[in-house]
Amino acid sequence: MLEESRILQECLERIEAGEAMEAALSRYPEYREEIEPLVHLALAVKKGVPAEMPAPARARTLYRLEGAFSAMERRRLRRAWIVWALRVAAALLVVIIVGSLWATQVNSAPGKPLFPLRVAVAETRLRLHPKPRRTLELLLQIAESRVAEVELMEKRQRVDQASIFQMVGATEDLMIALEIHPQFADEEFMEKVRKLVEEERALLDRLARYAFSKRTRHNALTLLKLSQSWERVLDQR
Amino acid sequence: MLKKRNNQARSFEEDEAYLVREAQKGNSQAFGLLYERYADRIYRYMCLRLGDPVEAEDLTAEVFLRALESLGSFRWRGAPFGAWLFRLAHNIAVDYWRKSRRQFPLPSEVSHAVPNRNGDVEKVLERKMLLREIQEAMKYLTPLQQQVITLRFAAGLSIAETAQVMGKKEGAVKNLQHKALKALRKLLAKPTRA
Predict the structure, then answer these.
(1) Domains of chain B (ranges plus CATH)?
(2) pLDDT in tens, A96-120
C-alpha cells in the first residue's frame, strides 16, 4: 500500500509537471491497473472545481476587506489614544506624588517620617554646590531669620507649630552643611553658629515650659531633645 | 517616490514573510496582495468542501476577514502563512457545517455501501464530473480523507504543503490520499448512496 501510494503521487506529480497522462502511466506497468482510475479521478476532481473565483465575488470580498481594514485602523488609533492618555495620566500622577513628597520634605523636622529624605536632599545639594562657604553663610542667615521670627511670635504669643518646625529644620540644614564642609567654617563663623544654637535652644526651652498650647509645649520639648544632636557637630570643631 | 513604490512592489511579490509583516503593521496593500495570492485556492477549497459555489464565495470572504482579525497573532513558527490560512479555512468550513446542522455521515455508513462492481467508473465519472456530484460523494469520506482530497486537488497544494496544513508527515499524507481516492472512486461508482 505504501509503495502504491508513493507511485500514485509520483505519477500525479509527473502529470502536474506537464507529462502526458499515457506517458506517465506507462512508466508503472505493474501498478497501472491500480493507479490509473485513481489518477483519472484526481484529475476529474480538479476539473470539477471552478478554476478561479468569479470577478464580482472577488471585488465584493476586496470591498469588505477594505471596510474591515479601515475599522481595524480606527480601533487601533483609538487604542493608541487610550494608551497615550494613560501614560500622560501616569506621568501626572508621578509628578503630583513627587511634588507632594518634595513639598512635605522641605518643611519636615527631625522625628518626622520625611526628615531622612530632607537630609538626603540637603546633603546632595550641598555636595553639588560650587561655593560651599557661601552656602554655609546663607544657611546661617536663614536659620537666624527663622529664630528671630519665632522669637517675635513668642512675644506676640502667637507661635504656630509650622514655624517651630521650620526654625529647627533650618538649623538642621546648617548642621548637615557643617558636617559635609567643616573646612569652610572658621572660628568666627563657628562662634556665630554656637550663639544661634544657644539662642534657639533657650527659645525652645521657654516654649516647652510656658507656651499657651499644650501641643506647642510638647513639640518644643521634643525638638529641644533632638537638638542635642547638634552638640556633636559643635564639639567636632 | 515611484521608484520606491516599484521597489516595494517587487519586495511584496518576492517575499511572503515581508507581506505578512507589513500587513500586521497595518499595510492594507500588503494584505491585498496576500488575498490575491490565496483567494482562488481558498475559493476552490471551499467549493469542494461545500459543493456550492455561492456559499463558497461567502466563506472565502469569511476566511480572509477572520485572517485579518487574527493576523496579529500569526507568527512564523514552523508552518507558513498559507498553511495557517488553510487551517483557518478548514475551521470555518467545519463551523459552517455545524451551524447549518448538516452532518457528515459516519465512516461506518460507507462500509455498508456496496459498490457497483459492474459499473464502468470512468464512464460514470464523465457523467458525474459536476462539482455537486463529487461533493455529494465526498460527504461519505472520513473528515481527513475529505481534507486531503480538497487540499490536494481543489486547492492545488503540494504534498508538503498539505502535510503542513494537516500537521502530518508527507508519507502519511500520500497514504491518506491514496485511500481517499480509492474510497471516492468506490462511492462514485455506485448509482445511489442514500
Answers:
(1) 1-103 (1.10.1740.10), 105-194 (1.10.10.10)
(2) 998 888 877 766 665 667 777 777 7
